[in-house]
Amino acid sequence: MSLHPKFILTSDGHLRFGMVHLHRELIEPGEQCIGGGFYRFDIISNRLILEHASYDYGAPQWDNVTRLIIPRDYAGLRPVYLLSEWNNEVIDLTSTHTVTYE
Q1: No. of helices (H) and no. of strands (E), the chain
Q2: Residue 88 CB: number of other CB atoms within 10 A?
Q3: Which of 87, 12, 76 shows the shortest CA–CA distance to 46?
Q4: CA gyration radius for the chain?
Q5: Which of 37, 59, 62, 89 is most solvent-facing, going by the fewest CB within 10 Å?
Q6: DSSP states of 39-84 as a string?
Q7: Chain segment 10-65, per-residue pLDDT in tens
Q8: In whole angstroms, how far apart are CA 28 and each of 31, 32, 82?
Q9: C-alpha distances in Å from residue 39, one per residue of 4, 29, 49, 56
């Protein structure tokens, strides 16, 4: 089984990223995962593209958090969620959430 670039969203708004087999490998003790998916970088437009859904946890429940906490390593990249790859419908998460890089 190969590693894939996956992310999770926790109930307190943390976005956690990693090259893992399963989304659950990204969860720390005591955390509640409220969705996840895959990520990739669009360096030309400085975007952190989040897309799809976790097979175990489903799509990220963006409406359940108001603040997104992203690792400092990703500062400068604008997080967006790609709703559909067929019509390129995108949610700019900086317009719907307070985003901090820690």
Answers
A1: 1, 8
A2: 8
A3: 76
A4: 13
A5: 89
A6: EEEETTTTEEEEES-BTTTBS--GGG-SEEEE-GGGTTSEEEEEEE
A7: 999 999 999 999 999 999 999 999 999 999 999 999 999 999 999 999 999 999 99
A8: 6, 9, 26
A9: 9, 23, 6, 16
> Residues near 86 by Cβ (< 8 Å), separated by ≥ 6?
none
CA angle 75, 80, 84 (to 5 degrees): 155
pTM exceeds 0.90, yes or no: yes
Name residue 35's amino acid. Answer: G
Tokens of 100: 């901090």
